[in-house]
Amino acid sequence: MEKMNQIEKFDGKDFHVHGKIQIQLLLVEKDLWDIVDGGSVAPTDVDALQKWKVKDKKALAIIGLGLSKPYLHHVDFKKSSNEIWEALNQLFGSKTDNAEINMKQKLYGLKMEEGGDIVSHISKFRSLMAQLDGINEKVKPNDAKAILLNSMPKSMSNMVFTLSKLNPSLESIIATLLDTESKDDEEEEAALASQS
């Protein structure tokens, strides 16, 4: 149960980003995901069925414990964990055109201000990518690289130009940007130290 206290309870927002992923990871860790996703169906053997039902109720408990109080009414112990999971997906994870458009607008319009924090900016970028991925709207790798590079401020235009010509992976671009932030911090600290 201590792991349940470490995850953020689903509060009605961003089901695919927060609630679903965290609950799913815990179910995988407890070897219960196959029950929830329908990969393991109820066996016909009486003993095996009893064991399956115990696992199903454990999975149902994890799902319920991952929900904040206003959403607990969605957990019905007369249903299977798979039925509850599907119902939650339909209620909170449905792909709507408006949500998709809104997320894409945020991603494509993402801009880092001059002197902004690269770590926060990349975190925001990754969050938007994860939200789109959560509704099965994958951003193509080259598009993701272009969006991230385009979101950088003018002061980084030389680096952006160089990175776009080299065509590295998205992770390499992110590593380079983070490395630049680290070097900028070190230079700033050295400048402050020399003034003292």
Structure description:
- It holds the Pfam family Retrotran_gag_2.
- The protein is mainly alpha-helical.
- The protein folds into two domains: 2-92, no CATH class; 97-195.
- Helix content is 67%, strand content 0%.
- The protein has ten helices and no strands.
- α4 runs parallel beside α5 and α6 (97-108) runs antiparallel to α7.
- The longest helix has 26 residues, at 170-195.
- The N and C termini lie far apart (52 Å).
Largest sheet geometry:
none
Note the total helix count.
10
Helices and strands, in N-to-C order? HHHHHHHHHH
Helix content: 55-70%
Distance between the termini: 52 Å
Mean of all residue-level pLDDT scores: 83
Calculate Rg over CA atoms.
Answer: 22 Å
How many extended strands?
A: 0
Q: Shape, please?
A: elongated
- Low-confidence stretches are none
Specify the structural class.
mainly alpha
Q: Beta-strand level of the residues, as a percent range? A: under 5%
Number of domains: 2
